[in-house]
Amino acid sequence: MNDSKFPKLLDYQALKQQYGDEADQSIETSSQNTSQENNALNFEQERAEKKLGLHGSRLRSYAFAVLTRKEYSKVELIEKLALYAESRDEVISLVEELSAQHYQSDQRVAEMMLSSQKRKGKGPNQIKIKLKNKKVDSALIAEELKETDWTEQAYQLKVKKYGLDVTKDQKLKAKQMRFLMYRGFEMDAIIKAISRKPNED
């Protein structure tokens, strides 16, 4: 192929040498400046949000707004409000007051946790761990935990996952046991659940 028939319309190499480096530096500098400005704005915004210095009626109003959206344990609510409050002592005093007036209730948090975790197929050990993470005493729902038929709960979960048949395969049996243990059931309930035959009381 004859190069003369296909002359170069643009000398890209020459253009790059003439403008490329400057253009690249300009774009890079502009990008860095924009990124630094955005980081600064985000930092300032975050700092402003975390240092509102709420107190008195404004802190109380914010606490009510928080509680209307979600149930918080006492410890969670204190930590949440302390991020925006002027005084941690005022936060603690306010939360104690809200708790005494039943606007905040660890009892409700515990009962809601029990209900939601049971719906998700979780056993008592998992529920206790969840409550501990929220700094809620599981003793608040000791009766409910005691009255729940955890063997039935474990059995229904086993049937849903593995069917009605009682397996004699040791590997499959071990797999079923690990599954139910991971879900938070105790060994006594697990053994009864995986050994239970259909229509057996």
Can you offer a commentary on this structure?
This is Regulatory protein RecX. Residues 105-143 form the RecX second three-helical domain. Residues 26-40 have a biased composition (Polar residues). It is a single chain. Among the domains are: 13-50; 106-148; 150-195, Arc Repressor Mutant, subunit A (Orthogonal Bundle), CATH 1.10.10. It is built from ten helices and no strands. It has helices at residues 12-50, 56-69, 74-82, 88-100, 106-119, 124-133, 142-147, 150-162, 170-182, 187-195. Helix 3 (74-82) runs antiparallel to helix 4. The mean pLDDT is 82.
Note the total helix count.
Answer: 10
* Count of extended strands: 0
Helix content: 55-70%
CATH fold descriptor of one domain: Arc Repressor Mutant, subunit A
Order of helices and strands: HHHHHHHHHH
| Low-pLDDT windows of residues | none
Shape label: elongated
CATH domain class name of one domain: Mainly Alpha
Distance between the termini: 90 Å
Q: What value does the average pLDDT take?
A: 82
Going by helix content, strand content and strand pairing, the class is mainly alpha
Q: For the report, how would you describe the main beta sheet?
A: none
User: Under the CATH scheme, which architecture of one domain would be assigned?
Assistant: Orthogonal Bundle
Nearest-angstrom radius of gyration? 31 Å
Strand content: under 5%
GO cellular component, one term: cytoplasm
Family: Belongs to the RecX family.
Subcellular location: Cytoplasm
Organism: Acinetobacter celticus
